[in-house]
Amino acid sequence: MHTTASLYTGDQTIRLLINGEYVASRSTERLPIVNPATQQVLAHTPCSTDDEVQAAVAAAKAAFATWRHTPIAARMRIMLRLQALIRESLPRVARVLTEEQGKTLADAEGDIIRGLEVVEHACSVGTLQLGEFAENVAGGVDTYTLRQPIGVCVGITPFNFPAMIPLWMFPMAIVCGNTFVLKPSEQDPMSTMELVRLALEAGVPPGVLNVVHGGKSVVDALCSHPDVAAVSFVGSTAVGTHVYDLAGRHGKRVQSMMGAKNHAVILPDANREHTLNALAGAAFGAAGQRCMATSVAVFVGESKDWLPDLVQRAKGLKVNAGVEPGTDVGPVISVQAKGRIEQLIDSGVSEGAQLLLDGRSPLVPGYEHGNFVGPTVFGGVKAHMRIYTQEIFGPVLVCMEVGTLDEAIALVNANPFGNGVALFTQSGAAARRFQSEIDAGQVGINVPIPVPVPFFSFTGSRGSKLGDLGPYGKQVVQFYTQTKTVTARWFDDATVSGGVNTTISLK
Ligand code: NAD
Question: What separation in Å is there between the alpha carbon of 228 and the centre of ligand 1?
C-alpha cells in the first residue's frame, strides 16, 4: 500500500511528522532547499516552533508507553517491510536525493543502499537484543539480564548522506523498542522524508517516528528536553562538540560522530594501478563531501613518483550535474560551501603548497550557475598549513611525503581527527603494524573508504567522535537499550527455609 500523503504544503514547504500526521509548520521562518547544480529552489524547510518540538517529543513519549511492549517479531516484521519498500523505491528516492544534494545518481543509490543494509540488520534484532542468563548463581538462584529500550531518542543528521545517516539511526532505535524524533539536515531533507514516509507505510505506528525541521534552536530544544533519553548526532566537529556538551549536561546518552581528515598512506610496494584508482575515487567521489573521503595522501619513500600519474587520473574525472550520465564529480552543496573550499585552496597557495591541479571555477556547460569545484591536488603540503589542519569537505587532495612507515604513522596520529585511514601495501607485516599502531576509528588495508558493514559498528577516535558507543552494529543496540539485571529465586511449598540471612551472601 502506497500512501499519497503529501510531504509538502501548497507553497512547497516540507511538512513535519507529528504523531503520524504530516503537519504544516506554523513558523514563518523557512530556508530554501536548492538544487546545487542549478540553484533552482526545490522547496523550503521550515524552522519548527518550540510548540512543534514539544508536540513531537510528547507524541514520542506517549507512543513509547505501548511501543516498548510490542513483541519483537512485530517490530522486526515492520523492518522487513521497510527494507522491501526502500528497495522498490530506490530509483525514485535516488532521483530526489541527487536533485537536492548534488551527488551522482549511482552514488545516491549507494547512499540509500548503505542505509538499507542497516534496515536489513535491524530485522535480526531478536538475537541482537538478547540478554544473558546464568543458572544457579547460588543454590536455586538464577541471574539474567533484560535489554530494555530507553525511551524517546533523538537523531540529528548532516547534509552529506541524507539517506544513509537517518537510516543508521531510526530503524535501530525503533526496532529496539524506543520512539524517535528525527531532525534532518535543513539543506536536503526531501529524500529523508521520502524514507520516513516509507517507514510509516511499512507499519511504524503514529508517534513512534516523528520529524521536526530547522537548525540550532530546534537542535538545542531537543538536546535539553527533559523527556529525551538519548541523542545521536552526525555532523561537523564544532556542532557535534556543542551537542555532546549540551545533551550531556542534561543527562542524555550521547553519541556524536564528527569531522575528519582521512589519510591514505602509500608504501612503494603497493599495487600501483589499484592504489591510484582507489585514491582518485576516494578523494574526489561525492565531490569530497564524505566524512570518510580520502583528503590526505601520504607518500612513503619512492611512491612519491606516482604523484603525476595521480594528477592525470584526477584530471580525467568528469565534473557535471549528478543527473548527467558519466558524471564523476557533482557540485558541492551550497554557494557558501563552494566559497569556503575556494578560500582554503587560496590559503594553500599563499602558504606555499604546490597547486598541481586547480579545480577552481571549472566550466560546466549547461550548469553555469552550479556550485562546482573540480578535482584539486596540492603537493609539498606541510603539517602547519590550513589545507592540512582543517577539514576542507570538498574535492581537494593534499599530498605529503615522508621517508618511512613510522613517520607516516606519527604524522597521522598527530592530526587532531581520527575518523578513517587507509594503507596501500602488499606487505602483510607492514599492514599488521599499521592497524595496530594507528589511532583512527576505521582502518582500510588496500580499501580506501572502509565504512563498516552493519554487523560491525561505525567508530571514530579523537576529534572525530565523542561518546563511547557508535552507530549501528552491536554497539548501537547497547546505546539504545538499558541493561536490567534480575536475580531470582522461587520457593514452592516444599522448600525448607534456612532462617534469617543477615549477610549479603546469597545462601
Ligand atoms: P553540520 O554540523 O553543519 O550540521 C549537522 C546538523 O547539525 C544539521 O542537522 C544541522 O541543522 C545542525 N546544526 C547546524 N548548526 C548547528 C548549531 N550551531 N547548533 C546546533 N545544531 C546545528 O554538518 P554538515 O555540514 O551538515 O555535515 C558535514 C559534516 O558532517 C562534516 O564535518 C563531516 O565530516 C561530518 N560527518 C561526519 C560523519 C561521521 O560519521 N563521523 C558522517 C557524515 C558527516
Answer: 20
